[in-house]
Fold this protein.
Amino acid sequence: MPLFLLKRLGQALVAIFGVMTLVFFIQRLTGDPTYLLVPETATQEDIEAMRASLGLDQPLLVQYVAYLWDMVRLDFGRSYVQNVAVTEIIASRLPYTLQLAGGALLVAIVVGLPVGLALAIWRRHRGTNLLMGLVLGAQSMPTFWSGILMIMIFGVWLGWLPPSGSGSLAHLVMPSIALGLLSMATYARIARSSVLDELSKDYIRSARARGVGTGRMVRTHLLRNSLIPVISISALEISQLLAGAVIVETVFAWPGLGQLTVQSVQSRDFVVVQGIVLLGAFVTISVNLIADILYSVVDPRIRKGDGP
Amino acid sequence: MTKTTKAARLALPVAICAGLACAVQVSPAEAKDRMVVDLVNEPATLDPHQQWNPDSYYVYRNIFDNLVTRDNDGEIVPQIATEWERTSDTETVFTIRDDVTFHDGEPLTPEDVVYSIERITDPDFASPQLGQFNKIVAAEVTGENEVTLTTDGAYPALLAQLVKLSIVPEHVASETSAEDFNANPVGSGPYAFESWDRGVAVTLSRNDDYWGDAGPFETVVFRGVPDAATRVADLQAGNADLVVTLNTDLAAQLESGGRGKVLTVNTERVAYFPMNGAKPPLDQPDMRRAIGYAIDREGIVEGLLGGYPRVVDQMLSPAHFGWSEEIEGFEYDPERARELIAGVEGAGTEMELATSPVYDQRVVQAIQQMLTDVGLNVSIETTDMATWLQDQQTTPDQAPMLTFSRWSCACQDPDGIMYPLLHSSSNWSRVNDPEIDALLDEARSELDEAARADLYAQVNRKALEEAYILPLYQAAIIYGAAEELDWQPTSNESLFLNRMSWNE
């Protein structure tokens, strides 16, 4: 076990190093941020002074080594634009992104699962076609459009919810729904096929033969058994939600990491982008690492290296 | 499951929704003391000597006083300096107000003024705004409440630049790091910094000890709302009282009904179209003149920009010093353009028109179409802003052949726009004309206003005659405001809160 763990840990470190290197070079390929940081009226000397103060006048390799050394010391640098420590900027935005992802996941599960269940159980009922259409519609709506639509209806016409911003539970409602709609459809589809799968199994047939009613059968037999694939896609959905948040956060002026990413890429704030990407890589790789370890606990063949 | 439990299960969500709705509807009612401004992004900095972009100075110009300012008519008027006198070609003596205190209670002294100038011009401080102030070579306290500034040679644009010089307190800024000062700025302006919730909002509160009129708002919140349609929705829902940077479509939506109104002003930002004379066929004056005749500027302004901007024929706007009513440029005349093109060698060469998504692409595409209509071959090259800026700030033989761009020096002085765009020593300039260089150099140190204005008029006439660069229009800025807000926006794109009021 420890050897396997060490191996996996080593792989994770290599992956993080790879991401660090990639993000460093890809960003620098896009060009020089200095021109965005000085006013139009800046002279060539001003531009060079600014470039030197950011350390961007150094050869790329020197910058890269300095960057790696900073990373080793866990010094993530300061934003070019805001001149504030990146860790501070990300720490102030992260809670908002987590709130939004949580809200969206709640919407997706609370709406998606019952819909999927209904679609499977009453699959021959005419109403399910309509429901299926609604699910497809929800999934097909781009979030920038559904977001603005909701803002117009609930924010401007009805005045029920604040159109944008953050600060209260009410602010969270619309962004969560806009972001959750996509995942909701995925949950509904997965739940539907998983329930259909279970419905065709022997134990359901015998339960029915025993005279178990639909309600009880769903509660005691079906639900638990069909939840397994739902749980395993949740890990995927969470990363999807974090990615989808870029647009939703911009439309609703929700101050999360997605909005920060867009702004930082636009202003070529390399240091902030590096920080965000590194955080994303760290989270993804950690989740995978944990999953790998859990699998190996369950299935000893993976541990020995001759697994499926 | 009984009916009652079902009802109970329904009751909770309904109650929560109702509660949320109530919570929200209360807020607009109390909005009178609290003013909310939707910016595009949150400020980059609140240290007025650091980053310099609209979202930052919209906020920090309310926290800090400047040495001088411009009134709503664009005249330079006293702020921290009550009067000034030019004692020699290079020296100007400023009298400093003696009744100003910073938000921490300390008085504002002439030493603070000197410190502010030394801070922003210190090369080690590396202010992005250095280029606007580096003509000032010395600042000294020369008497009680007196500061003398010395410039490197005669410098007529001094006051126009000092409009942007914010006074920071020496006892705070010199004691703390630039980062701490940015996180906790102390100024002497009508509004004091209260809090900066990163990524969310900056909150200012009225400085009741302000020496002048501080305006009616107890607290003012500046939020970053990147999506323009969301900003309009905020305004219409009463969630914001003032929103910035709307396009003409959203302005039309706002005017066509619902809450809120459109406020607009023509700024000192001039849209222009430089033609790179270093590259054939643009080295032939007739080719450049043909382009001048081919572009229908009235059509662009009326058809695409809602009629807000004003067509200009000189590289200035009426908001600038030196604007001349007498200069007339190219009329839209596609026939004339075709005739000229017929006599140009290699007129069919493919020419790239450099642009960036920041600029209005409808205008860029309209220009391409107009040039295609008279038989030219123009391709649009779109790059991101940083690349575009880099491509522009180079020598003419490297620069793109055609460019659509807009320029503001935020100084309303011709030196800030014509020197960078027309003088051969500037990175931005595509012009290499010794006569224009000489005129610009002379104007840069001509202290007599009438003579100086005349020099710039000569430059404009020469530039038109040779068609080096086409002035297009004086850009408009469109704000959305609550019906109850009274405010006259100014050409320098500032949001001075103490010049706004509720109209009840």
